[in-house]
Specification:
alpha+beta, 7 helices, 6-stranded mixed β-sheet, 376 residues, L-amino peptidase D-ALA esterase/amidase
Length: 376
């Protein structure tokens, strides 16, 4: 099944949505040098759900901390805001403070096949390494409303395609990769990304965030502090029938030289960016976050003494602020980039309407009418 293509839509800043902080040049997780992102998007079939036959609206997203050609481990930390979800391999990340390999994101029932594919991919890279083993990090959110999730359409080759396609540079957003069949605040959701660059006096480091967004009820949605979801009440999916029970996976990258306990602190701050957009981390949600640092190339050294650099705890606040800001923006970017999608049983999830969003922000004096900084 060939990866589907989606056309580029304007990002939230281009629409005039105001955000705090200074982004990197790409306003993406790939602003952190060395980080690569790849997607494999699967879209086929239409009409009535026939388990095993479709319709298919799913995929896989890969985030590689040091790129495809560098298997050097990175320091990492994890945080579970609400644990009704899965992120494999994090027990060892918590224990060792190390992330060895990519972070993969897919649908709930494809975690196992993606994990096995990553093990095979990593084994080929390390075929000459004695006693090698792996505990890959694979995370999920549920796309079963739009996708034939019990048809198990994600195969090992699709995980490998996401890894093979990983690149630096601009990151496709919206209905791509693992985010293909996801929704956010009852609009179409998916993959989003953003970044922040610290001032030179704060170290000049970069924080990048990528999220797979699949959470929230409509009335909860806030954009730039404005309760836009209370005005956009058309095409509701869940509001009349159930409590919030969606999920989100957030990956935070930085080039600041942070140790594992500091990265866990950074991962926690993603929750505050999520809250800015209206999430309450409902009882049934899976809100799982991981943060890693591309600094300290000797982080995974197996012999002798490693030479490490540690960022002072007393200087962490700007990194926390950058994480909150980038998380907030990457979620809105996911919604702005996403397009209306019709899936299983002709279920239709509409895209966030750009014009109506701009009108609401304008009435609340929160619209940037013209941008001059060139940042998307």
């Amino acid at each position: 099944m060939a990866p589907a293509r989606t056309r580029r839509r304007p990002r939230a800043r281009k629409l005039g949505v105001p955000f705090d902080g200074l982004p990197g040049p790409l306003n993406a997780i790939t602003d952190v040098s060395g980080v690569e992102v790849g997607h494999c998007t699967l879209i086929s079939g239409s009409g009535r759900l026939k388990p095993g036959k479709g319709p298919v609206r799913t995929g896989v997203t890969a985030v590689l901390p040091r790129g495809r050609r560098d298997a050097t481990p990175v320091f990492a930390g994890c945080f579970s805001l609400n644990g009704n979800g899965e992120m494999t391999g994090t027990t060892w990340v918590e224990e060792s403070g190390l992330l060895s390999g990519p972070v993969m994101v897919t649908n709930t029932h494809s975690v196992g096949v993606v994990r096995d594919a990553v093990v095979a991919w990593m084994a080929r890279q390390r075929k000459d390494t004695k006693d090698w083993w792996a505990l890959p990090v694979v995370a999920e959110t549920y796309d079963g409303l739009l996708n034939d999730i019990n048809g198990f359409h994600v195969k090992p080759r699709h995980a490998l395609e996401a890894l093979k396609s990983a690149r630096s540079g601009p990151v496709p957003e919206g209905n791509v990769g693992g985010g293909t069949g996801m929704m956010c605040h009852e609009f179409k959701g998916g993959i989003g990304t953003a970044s922040r660059r610290l001032s030179e006096k704060d170290g000049g480091y970069t924080v990048g965030v990528l999220a797979q967004c699949n959470y929230g009820l409509r009335h909860q949605l806030r954009v730039a502090g404005v309760p836009v979801g209370q005005e956009l009440r058309d095409d509701l999916i869940f509001s009349k029938s159930r409590q919030e029970s969606g999920s989100i996976i957030i990956v935070v990258a930085t080039d600041a030289p942070l140790l594992p306990h500091q990265l866990k602190r950074v991962a926690r701050r993603a929750a505050m960016g999520l809250a800015r957009n209206g999430s309450v981390a409902g009882n049934g949600s899976g809100d799982l976050f991981i943060a890693f640092s591309t600094a300290n190339p000797e982080a995974g050294r197996a012999e002798g003494l490693a030479s490490l650099t540690m960022f002072p705890n007393d200087r962490m606040s700007p990194l926390f602020e950058a994480t909150v800001q980038a998380t907030e923006e990457c979620i809105i970017n996911a919604m702005v980039a996403a397009e209306t999608l019709v899936g299983a049983n002709s279920t239709k999830v509409v895209a966030l309407p750009h014009d109506r969003l701009r009108d609401i922000l304008l009435r609340h004096n929160r619209l940037v009418v013209a941008r001059t900084d060139g940042v998307e």
